[in-house]
């Protein structure tokens, strides 16, 4: 009964946003479970291959129609001077995430690795509400046994305590830190053509930290909420801005997406088993897929390819036996990530180039008058900092965010090192209450768009 209630609650949670997509999510659920069950049976190999193909085409077709139809038609109209109508489809919530989860399930069913699963456990695996909306992308082995474990139907005081702590950390990341940066990011990108050196860098760095605290905050909230039901969701972030190279970054950022792409695309393509050239091609393929998965736009594709090229260069560098000072390695990695996030955030190439030109100083270098007054500089080229009421405020937020991501323990370390102490309760309560007072100005989670 507890699992039925949890499943119905998850469906209600999903449907509350847009009830018209409720039939779609049920269709996806039943079709994938039926195909997965068929693939798990002893059938002729050609029948199982055909059914797997049907299942993958079904899932990719749904995702492609809702997410990429307008993008495809727009490009066809542009290239061939046609005038096909756009549908202006609203992307069904979480379709990118539950599509990948179910494709992984079908592939593992084909490999005979999913036998014995019942419908209710499968339904919870796909639509467990803490992780449904924006991940982490859960593998069936991560949670299915937990749903079947009768001990997880009992109240666990430690899990509740840890869950509330991690949830409160995630909530604070989102509504206090990420949403503060969102104001300056939106302001900066809305006037990208006029950004000069300092405010362009503040704009780009603000988005770098907004995205991190927004998405990692959601992942923390998902993990924390899962623990309230005695379900351990997989780690999705591990201090990615501490990375010393781009491969290290992708081992730490959106870990479950990297795991999916490696397991179901990179390795089947041959991984690194077919020579250096083929390895580099495979790397570029998975990063191009990562880019287009994040958004239906050429800026996302370029973002993915830039990370793919950087990964190829890093692998070549490592194989050649070169090394680099750790501080310099961190600085180069962080600045590359920061610069490429510009393409991730910008609505088009024109805006992205404008921001990057500002960062390069090609639009001039001006000192905000607020900073000039503090530094007692006299210059005839002062301007009013337009991203916020105070340039100093943005600088303090950036310095604080950098300190948090480089010095403080991440939420997973808090979770693993947790001991029931009174000060943990006070800390969690303080974060939660303070965050609650900021809920009236919350923006949507960025990964809801993907």
From TrEMBL:
Broad class of the protein's primary localization: membrane
Record bears the keyword Acyltransferase: yes
Keywords for the protein's UniProt record, in alphabetical order: Acyltransferase, Cell membrane, Membrane, Transferase, Transmembrane, Transmembrane helix
Bilayer disposition of the protein: Multi-pass membrane protein
MF terms (GO), sorted A to Z: acyltransferase activity
Membrane-spanning residues: 20-38, 50-66, 86-107, 119-139, 159-177, 215-233, 283-306, 327-344, 385-410, 422-440
One Pfam family cited in the UniProt record for this chain: MBOAT
Cellular localisation: Cell membrane
Recorded family membership: Belongs to the membrane-bound acyltransferase family.
Protein's name according to its UniProt entry: D-alanyl-lipoteichoic acid acyltransferase DltB (MBOAT superfamily)
Organism of this sequence: Bacillus chungangensis
Lineage of the species this protein comes from: Bacteria, Bacillati, Bacillota, Bacilli, Bacillales
